[in-house]
Amino acid sequence: MTFEQLKYIVTVEKFGTLKDAAEHLHITLSALSQGLNKIEAELGLTLFQRNRTGSTITKEGRIIVAQAKKILFALDDLYESAEVLQNKLTGTLKVASIPGPFFQLFATAQQMKSIYPDINIQIREQNSQTMLEELKSEKVDIALAVYNHEDLEKYPDLAFTKIQDCEVFIVAHKDSPVIQGGKVVTEELGEQPVILFDDKIVIATMNEMKRVFGRNDIVISVNNPHIVQQYVEENKAYTIGLDLTFNHSQRFMQDMSSVKIDFLTEIPTTHSFGIVTKSNRHETQLMKEFAYRLKKDFQEQQPNLTETSL
After folding, report:
1. Which CATH architecture has domain 166-269?
2. Which residue range or ranges hold the HTH lysR-type domain (predicted)?
3. Residues 6 or more apart from 283 whose CB is under 8 A from it?
């Protein structure tokens, strides 16, 4: 039995037909069929039932394919460990972050790139809900997200490593009537335009404020945090957001007033920020190395880094 034959059975299980598996493996259909016959003969088991519509995996086949995946993952780890030891780590890493911690994330990525110049790190800003969904489908490898207890229950297959608590704030230009004398003028909340970064927690907070203080005539929701800052800087609207989003924008906050939202009782206004990964997927050495360095960088700022689970 060879590693190549193990790849055959894993690929057939993935695609469901010999034709599609052969195309993916860049081998002939005959070579794949012969390879499957050899491994089945060696094991004394039928792994797939072949028919005109495809190849259906058997009960025994599921067990063998699961073991084959473990062996191939271990082989990948072996090669990647050798690359790490030679500072020759390669591969692509897809990372997502909410606005704010993006700058620390970028610094960690630059450090990794200086050590392993052949790696490719793709970074993008997203809202937390999109990141959690894309972690499930493995479109994202590592995320810096904000979450709460509801998310821990909804995503049991994700691993959440808490970095810090974060609070929801109202932020407005210092000339805005929304905040006066360090306090929110609640009568103005429904009168003044508001612009929001499209995030589940932010939207939920806004909806609760509407319920308590009345609806706003103008509510703008955008996916670009820079547009939010521009509108608030020009005193065209106020905004609602997480403190860690604004903590990294000192120049922006110079002309702003901010107040913690502690006057809503029906929804939580304190949430968790942390590193999120998919717990049951195979982690490449690149993923492990980057997550380790990212945690280390944040630990230097927040020493009480803890794993969170139900």
Report:
1. 3-Layer(aba) Sandwich (3.40)
2. 1-58
3. 277, 291
Distance between CA atoms of 258 and 264, rounded to whole angstroms? 16
Burial level of 78, CB count in 10 A (0-12/13-18/19+)?
Answer: exposed
Q: Tokens at residue 162, please?
A: 């808490």
What is the model's pTM?
A: 0.67
CATH code for the structural domain at 91-165+271-308: 3.40.190.10
Structure confidence by residue, pLDDT tens digits, 190-202: 889 999 998 888 9
106-125 pLDDT, tens per residue? Answer: 889 998 888 888 899 999 98
Read out DSSP for 116-183? -TTEEEEEEE--HHHHHHHHHTTS-SEEEEEE-HHHHHH-TTEEEEEEEEEEEEEEEETT-TTEETTE
Q: 3-85 in CATH: which number? A: 1.10.10.10
- Token look-up 């949430």 returns 271
What's at 185, amino acid-wise?
A: V
Q: What is the pLDDT of residue 288?
A: 85
Q: Summarize pLDDT for 55-111 with one digit per residue, the tens.
A: 889 999 899 999 988 888 787 777 777 766 666 778 899 999 988 888 788 889 998
